[in-house]
Design goal:
The complex is a heterodimer of chains A (334) and B (744). Chain A contains twelve helices and twelve strands. Chain A has helices at residues 15-24, 37-42, 78-83, 85-90, 92-99, 104-109, 112-117, 168-174, 192-195, 276-282, 289-299, 311-328, and strands at residues 8-11, 28-31, 50-53, 62-64, 70-73, 178-183, 186-191, 214-220, 228-234, 245-254, 257-266, 273-274. Chain A is globular. A seven-stranded mixed sheet of chain B has the order 3-5-1-14-11-12-13. A six-stranded mixed sheet of chain B has the order 9-17-16-15-10-32, with helices on both faces. The chains are: A alpha+beta (334), B alpha+beta (744).
Chain lengths: 334, 744
């Protein structure tokens, strides 16, 4: 049922006020681009009493850092970031992940910080009349025996198999990005890889962020020197669609062996999935199909599927192998 | 003056549509308008034990809540008849909210009306419904063993089985045989505009209904039959409709509920379904399985064709989309057996959707033919050419027109089919490339009763032509402008065509690719009658230069009547009318369609070719190019007809690769009832599509020989893609849609 219940709305102009207003009201939420928030509001999945519009906050800058990294304001629009010169030139992985996400219209609305905070598209999470441990802790998981073709095979628990939908976050996790968070207790930084949580016994908790805390920026360190990187997205249709499987890779080959490997997976896991087991297999090995297959095998060893998503284990394997092959055969760009 | 018919006149309503000036049903401003929101059942079977509307009634802005406990009488029980018939056309023969029973999820259980849409939506969430649930069956596997062969299907219009010759004998005689089963996921039509109705009663107990419908009279007759209100008191207006694809071909219960709410609350009420409700409220293409057995001689002549279908229908109606029609007549085989089997489940009655019946039936046949060609080691095109039915195998009558052979040959030429490599096709890096083809066929149907239009010429030489059609994107307004212009001998700029109201001369709902045929016949008759009347008047008028000429010696061009062999002798319509103080002249045209058995088989044919690229490792299928050649009789407007055919081919792409509605049998409802989860192609998926039409003269179907282009484009398109996937990968995928997991 699409509906909008009565709700209060306010607009704030600075970060301190935004944090203060939301902290003071446990029933309130930040509103950025609204591309997911408003949708969830309309289907009653999220029912805040107050929305605090943060679009006037000065958080849209995309800056190059003295160390060669990037600092992206949390309210920068996905489309603006994808088009930004430094991103296109030096972070092809990031630009590709952004371009392959959503649609042009959505990218023009959706913010970078909001993208990291978006919720799963699990059919049952979005249906308020059925059990969902993520939406209502303890109400059961309807997806495990249900329509779960899009669901996760990595990072699942017996409470939740919902897939994290972001492409951007997968690229950022591969790039060792850091989020800057402003909260009632001041500013802190968190590795993005630490920021996301596996569902475990608390699938309702998806991020290490407290009520009233606000992502203000994303810092992306310089890409590994000499690396080739790319984002590969496998999906049912060619645009405007979530990944069935995706891989973000950045690989450096020196003297015939892989010197450094970054690999993260999307579409197959409950959170943006840094494939550290695979990375361990890759580093020091020659870049070959055999190496890639061994790495994929290792990463997917703990994978668990639930029927309609059985194929995802094999698809994830092949996606990893393909992405690594592309990055090492010159298919990727520096 | 070159004829307008066959030209490329741009949509006459195009400007209004792109500027937003065109008003759709949900955009008609009415003072005091209230908004109704349906509350659908969240269980698929059982009874309502309690329905608590107190909170909803108390919510801000709410003006009324209807439930089964206070619904005003709905006395009528019209039978389900396809809207082509022109009578009441309820989508199902049962009407909700007359009692406490629940038969399918999403069935209306309450209607909440408030002063704004937002308040109505909110209040609808406050209605508390308690159910005594009973076990529900919603998927084929739950009810397969209870299947029966219905005596008749499709609103009683067709028998449940067809036999000619002896199929067992034919299969025994075969030296090569193919037995295959094809599975089709349920599909939904998904037009952009959701179904919307606005009703406004006046003090004389007459109602104006704005409705998004494929036929204003279908809405008028259905509401009339259900509510027991005389049709003359119901005016239905449907000027612009934002697509339908079959979802608005029948008149579903929410339309009448809206009319009822407006009467009960004594104010105008609008009811627009939301996207999720579209999945539960307007029927769908049913989940189904089709079994094909083909037998052939060593040189590829078919000896037998057996085609069985099992599908799930509602508890109310024996409905199956008519998948066995075209597959039974495309190829000449003396031995044929087609049987529909139905099993009842907790679902709304299924209905029409894009190429109803033929889209699935021809998919199965044309994939099986491809498999047979492989068994015979014969080119798939050659197998078709060897088996074309040169006359209607059912009746033995000649075709009113065919063109199938020409379409196949021309399509092959355009596609360079002769360059096709025999077996598993070429590899380009990680990509496997394959080619496939299929024949297309769609029955030509005509309404069973007369179709009417009215033409009026004004003294300034301009004309208005009217008929009660609905413009739901087909381009009928444009094509009718052309038809009227040619018949009247006027330039198209001097003709305005008006449709979209049940007060206009009666045209049946535009369904089954029959809309343009019926409307063009009526418009042609009306405009011709008017022209003839004007000519008769001129030759009888002693002040006319044409006085005493023979009427059939007179022709009209650019609004001027003249002698065919002495063009200098003549006068304009305007001169004739002005001289006689006539503000206008008007004529009614009536076209009586051919009888059900006119001594000819009536069918539309075509051919489809597709090239796919399949990722060898990842299983992703993308279509690279498609060629479609069709013989739809007379093409009224090349631009809109080719667009429609191209759209149909893309429906086929969508059917083959993307569309599936997944039932969650535990919940008894569609799990992916949103555009987030029900995929249709986006522009990025659309390949290079080439459409050509071959005009085959047809003097049987209707005066202009129009066989229609509404559905033929989808037929065979999916099969050509599936066959190309086989050619690329060596794998036969017999379940639709073909998603990548089948190819890993």
């Amino acid at each position: 049922m699409a509906a909008v219940r009565p709700i209060s709305y306010s607009r704030v102009a600075d970060v301190a006020t935004a944090v203060g207003v939301v902290t003071a009201d446990p029933e309130s939420k930040f509103l950025a681009g609204g591309t997911n928030q408003v949708d969830l509001l309309r289907i009653y999945v999220e029912q805040p009493a107050r929305l605090v519009d943060i679009n006037d906050l000065p958080l849209r800058e995309i800056e190059e850092r003295p160390d060669g990294g990037l600092r992206i304001g949390a309210l920068a629009r996905m489309g603006d970031v994808a088009r930004a010169g430094p991103v296109r030139e030096r972070y092809p992985l990031l630009a590709q992940a952004l371009h392959l996400g959503a649609s042009t219209q959505l990218r023009n609305m959706a913010s970078m910080g909001g993208n990291l905070m978006q919720r799963t598209r699990c059919l049952y999470f979005r249906d308020v009349e059925v059990g969902c441990n993520k939406r209502v802790p303890g109400s059961g998981c309807s997806a495990m025996q249900g329509v779960n073709r899009g669901h996760a095979v990595l990072g699942t628990s017996d409470q939740c198999i919902a897939t994290h939908p972001s492409d951007l976050a997968v690229a950022l996790v591969a790039l060792d990005a850091v989020v800057q968070i402003e909260g009632p207790d001041g500013r802190r930084e968190l590795d993005l890889d630490e920021f996301f949580l596996e569902p475990g016994d608390t699938p309702e908790r998806e991020h290490r962020i407290g009520h009233g805390e606000l992502i203000v920026a994303i810092e992306v360190p310089p890409p590994p020197a000499g690396s080739r990187s790319l984002y590969l997205k496998v999906r049912d249709r060619d645009s405007y669609e979530f990944a069935l499987a995706s891989a973000a890779v950045a690989v450096t080959v020196e003297s015939g062996v892989i010197a450094e490997a970054r690999l993260a997976l999307g579409g197959v896991a409950t959170r943006p999935w840094r494939a550290r087991q695979a990375e361990r297999v890759l580093v020091g090995a020659p870049p070959s199909e055999t190496t890639f297959a061994a790495a994929a095998q290792e990463e997917l060893r703990p994978a668990v599927s639930h029927g309609m998503n059985d194929y995802k284990i094999e698809l994830a394997r092949r996606t990893i192998v393909r992405a690594l092959s592309m990055a090492t055969d010159g298919g990727g760009t520096a | 003056m070159s004829p307008a018919i066959g030209g490329t006149l741009a949509r006459v309503e195009g400007g209004a549509k792109v500027t937003g000036a065109a008003r759709y049903t949900g955009e008609i401003p009415l003072p005091g308008l209230a908004h109704a929101v349906l509350v659908g059942a969240r269980v698929a079977s059982g009874r309502i034990t309690e329905i608590d509307t107190v909170a909803a009634e108390r919510a801000d802005g709410v003006v009324g809540v209807l439930t089964h406990e206070n619904l005003p009488p709905v006395p009528g029980t019209p039978r389900l008849l396809p809207s082509l018939v022109g009578l009441a056309a309820p989508g199902l023969s049962w009407f909700p909210m007359r009692d406490d029973s629940v038969h399918y999820a999403g069935q209306p259980v309450a209607v909440v009306v408030a002063d704004t849409i937002e308040r109505a939506e909110h209040a609808a969430t406050l209605v508390r419904v308690q159910y005594a649930q009973s076990p529900a069956s919603t998927v084929l596997d739950q009810v397969r063993d209870q299947a029966y062969v219905p005596e008749r299907i499709f609103g009683g219009m067709l028998p449940g089985q067809f036999v000619r010759g002896n199929v067992e004998d034919g299969l025994k005689k075969a030296s090569v045989r193919v037995d295959r089963t094809y599975y089709f996921a349920a599909n939904h039509q998904n037009p952009i505009e959701t179904s919307t109705t606005t009703a406004l009663w006046d003090d004389a107990d007459r109602v104006t209904v704005y409705d998004s419908t494929q036929g204003p009279t279908a809405t008028q007759m259905t509401v009339s039959a259900l509510l027991g209100v005389a049709p003359g008191k119901i005016k239905v207006i449907s000027e612009f409709v934002g697509g339908s694809f079959g979802s608005k071909a029948m008149i579903w219960p929410h339309v009448t509920l809206c009319v009822l709410a407006a009467r009960q609350l004594r104010r105008p009420v609008r009811l627009a379904l939301n996207r999720e409700q579209m999945f539960h409220s307007c029927g769908h293409r049913e989940e189904q399985e089709q079994q094909l057995s083909l037998g052939a001689t060593p040189d590829g002549k078919l000896t037998a064709l057996r085609h069985h279908k099992i599908s799930i229908t509602s508890h109310f109606d024996d409905w199956a989309e008519t998948s066995l029609q075209s597959p039974g007549i495309v190829y000449a085989t003396p031995n044929y057996e087609g049987i529909y089997r139905l099993a009842r489940g907790n679902t709304i009655t299924p209905t029409f959707m894009r190429g109803p019946g033929e889209a699935t039936g021809m998919f199965a046949l044309e994939c099986a033919m491809d498999e047979l060609a492989a068994e015979l080691n014969l080119d798939p095109l050659e197998l078709r050419l060897r088996n074309i039915a040169e006359k209607d195998p059912t009746s033995g009558h000649p075709w009113s027109s065919s063109g199938l052979r020409e379409c196949l040959q021309r399509g092959a030429e355009l596609f360079d089919w002769r360059d096709r490599e025999r077996e598993p096709a070429r590899r380009e890096g990680n990509t496997l490339v394959g080619w496939g083809m299929a024949a297309s066929a769609y029955p030509h149907v005509a309404p069973p009763n007369p179709q009417r239009a009215r033409a009026r010429l004004y003294a300034d030489g301009s004309a208005v032509v009217e008929a009660g059609v609905s413009e739901f994107g087909t381009g009928v307004t444009t094509a009718m402008t052309q038809v009227a212009a040619d018949a009247l001998g006027l330039p198209v700029a001097r003709v305005r065509f008006v449709g979209g109201s049940s007060d206009l001369p009666n045209i049946t709902a535009a369904v089954g690719s029959a809309g343009t045929g019926a409307a063009s016949a009526a418009v042609h008759c009306a405009a011709t009658e008017l022209r003839d009347q004007l000519i008769r008047q001129a030759v009888a008028d002693e002040r006319s230069p044409l006085h005493r000429a023979k009427p059939d010696a007179v022709t009209v061009s650019e609004g001027r009547m003249c002698l065919r062999d002495r063009p200098n002798t003549g006068e304009t319509y305007a001169e004739l009318l002005s001289r006689n103080f006539l503000p206008d002249v008007e004529a009614l045209g009536t076209w009586t369609p051919p009888p059900p058995d006119p001594g000819y088989g009536m069918h539309t044919f075509g051919a489809q070719f597709a090239e796919v690229a399949v990722d060898a490792d990842l299983g992703v299928v993308r279509v690279r190019r498609m060629v479609g050649v069709f013989a739809p009789g007379r093409v009224l407007n090349r631009r809109t007809a080719h667009s429609q055919l191209m759209g149909g081919m893309l429906w086929g792409l969508s059917q083959a690769l993307l569309e599936a509605t997944h039932m969650d049998p535990r919940l008894g409802r569609w799990a992916n009832a949103s555009f987030n989860d029900y995929l249709v192609p986006v522009n990025a998926d659309v390949p290079d599509v080439f459409v050509e039409t071959i005009e085959v003269p047809d003097t049987v179907v209707n005066p202009l020989g129009v066989k229609g282009v509404g559905e033929i484009g989808i037929v065979g398109s999916g099969a050509a893609i599936a066959n190309a996937v086989y050619h690329a990968t060596g794998r036969r995928v017999r379940d639709l849609p073909i998603t990548l997991e089948a190819l890993l």
